[in-house]
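quick one
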Amino acid sequence: MTKQELKKYRTALEAKLAELGPIKQQITEIQITQIEPNDGATAMTVLLAISSADMNSSTRRYVVAALRRIEDGSYGTCLGCEEAIGKKRLDAVPWTPLCITCQGKNEKQDPELAKILHMP
Ligand SMILES: [Zn+2]
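structure w/ zinc ion:
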């Protein structure tokens, strides 16, 4: 992978990280301002907000790990089989640690992974 490509992916990853925002703080604010006892609708809203925050924080872990792999030079290599991950795949999901074959195997065991590493 060229330096230019690495720079492109790093920029995409940093943008994603910024988009995810400060998750823990958001949850705390929701809990303080919105949880009312005996209010089913609000409780559901909070649950949804927390589950989407969990999702973001999982995604964040992948994004941060991908940035580390750029630093240590292993970015773009599948963690499952050590083959190069396809460029098209990295363009679509720059934080993916797995090639399409390994993701296919992992998705069956981990549905959350399928959502985080979703291919358009
Ligand atoms: Zn692989």
